Amino acid sequence: MNREQLFYLVRNQFGIEPDYPWPKFPENAVLRHANNRKWFGLVSRIPGEKLGLTREGPVEIINLKVRPELVGSLRQQAGIFPAWHMNKEHWITVTLEGPLSDEQIVELVNDSYALTR
Fold first, then answer.
1. Which tens digits make up the pLDDT trace of 41-100?
2. What pLDDT score does 98 carry?
3. Residue 108 in contact with residue 91, Cβ under 8 Å?
4. Which own/partner pairs from 75-78 qualify as long-range (CB within 8 Å, at least 24 positions apart)?
5. Are 41 and 64 in contact (CB under 8 A)?
6. Which of these, 33, 32, 57, 31, lies nearest to 45 by C-alpha position?
7. C-alpha to C-alpha distance for 40 and 32, rounded to whole angstroms
8. Fold of 3-116
9. Which pLDDT does position 56 carry in this prediction?
10. How many angstroms from the chain centroid is the CA of residue 70?
11. From the CB of residue 21, how many other CB atoms can be counted at a distance below 10 Å?
12. Given the DSSP bridges, would you call strands 39-47 and 29-32 parallel, antiparallel or unpaired?
């Protein structure tokens, strides 16, 4: 899944457009509820080494809220990392470029949306 596919999903499923709150970081997009303004996702492009990856170049990620009791087991899956720049007890970082399937990413996005409602 790439960022455009993710934004298409969020637009069609929740009626939400990405928000770009930081002029200094124009690629960072926040996904937030229209009514309470709470975030349920942060989409960014970061250097792979920030996640401990050995590959060169940037990686497309999304930070998602999850139930604290699931954080440990989720982080054992390839493509899921401790949250980058977020509370690591409640948030995870997921690489959008795989190895998770689109369906797995959609499920995590849906859960994050529900948890922040």
1. 999 999 999 998 988 889 999 999 999 999 999 999 999 999 988 888 899 999 998 899
2. 83
3. no
4. none
5. yes
6. 57
7. 6
8. Aspartate Aminotransferase, domain 1 (3.90.1150)
9. 81
10. 16
11. 9
12. antiparallel
- Residue 116 and residue 65 in contact, taking contact as beta carbons nearer than 8 Å: yes
Question: In 3D, which of 113, 78, 73, 70 has the Cα closest to residue 97?
Answer: 78
Say which residues have a Cβ less than 8 Å from residue 84's Cβ, sequence separation at least 6: 44, 46, 50, 51, 61, 63, 93
- Could you count the other beta carbons within 10 Å of the beta carbon of residue 6? 22
pLDDT band at 2 (very low <50, low <70, confident <90, very high): very high
Q: Which two tokens stand for residue 7?
A: 């934004």
**Domain residues of the chain, as ranges?**
3-116
Cα distances from 22 to residues 28, 44, 59, in angstroms, run: 7, 12, 19
